[in-house]
C-alpha cells in the first residue's frame, strides 16, 4: 500500500484528512501533540523515509497566533510569518526529494486560507504566510511538474473544528453564501481527490473551499486594528 504524510493531524481538518485517506493509503501523521515538529527538516525527512512508497504529502499544520505590525517588533512579525511558511516548505522539500528518488512523481496539497487573497483585519502575519504558501504552490508546480510532482492548495473558509467552535456564531456562518461553515470531512474529500489519480492533470491550482466566502463583500469577522 502506498503512503501519504499528513501534518497537523491530531485534530480538526488534519485528523479528518488522515482518517479519510486511511481508506486507500498508509497514513503517517506529524503533529506537535505527538512530539513531531512538521517544520523540522529532519523530522520531515524521517517521515518520508518511513513512508516508503510515498504517494502524497498534505501540509496542514499551521500556527494561528498573530501580531499587529504597529505594536509588535519586526522580528516577532517575521518569526510568525516564517514559522507558518516553514511548515509548508519543510514538507514540500521532504516530499519532493522522496518523489524524485522514487522516480514515481506524487502529489502535494498545501492547506491555505481565504485570507491569502482577502485578509480579515488583525491577521496580518497569518494572511501573509498563507499568501506566500500559495506562491510556493505555484512555483513548486512549475519547477517539479516535469518530474510528475503535482502541487496544489486548498484555500479554506471557516471550518467547524474545536478552534472554530471556541468563538464563532451564526453571523460568522452567514459569511458563507451557503449559509454555514464547512465540515472537516468536506475538506478531506477534496484533498483526497487532489492526491488521487482523478486529479492527474491538476497542478498549480488553489481550490477555494469556503462556501463562496471569498466572493462576498465586507467581513464582520475582521477586528479593528487601529
Descriptive keywords:
226 residues, alpha/beta, Rossmann fold
Structural notes for this entry:
The chain is an alpha/beta fold and 226 residues long. It has a single domain, classed as Rossmann fold (3-Layer(aba) Sandwich), CATH 3.40.50. Helix content is 40%, strand content 16%. It contains 7 helices and 6 strands, in the order βαβαβαβαβαααβ. Strands 2-1-3-4-5-6 form a 6-stranded parallel beta sheet, sandwiched between helices. The protein is globular, with a radius of gyration of 17 Å. The termini are far apart. The mean pLDDT is 92.
Secondary structure blueprint with pairings:
Layout: E1 3-7, H1 12-21, E2 26-30, H2 41-51, E3 54-59, H3 74-102, E4 106-113, H4 124-144, E5 149-156, H5 162-165, H6 170-173, H7 184-195, E6 206-209
Parallel strand pairs: 1-2, 1-3, 3-4, 4-5, 5-6
Helix pairs in contact: 1-7, 2-3, 3-4
Helix content: 40-55%
Strand tally is: 6
The low-confidence parts are none
Structural Rg? 17 Å
Based on the structure given, which CATH architecture is correct?
3-Layer(aba) Sandwich
The CATH superfamily is identified as: NAD(P)-binding Rossmann-like Domain
Strand coverage percent:
15-25%
The CATH class name reads: Alpha Beta
Number of domains: 1
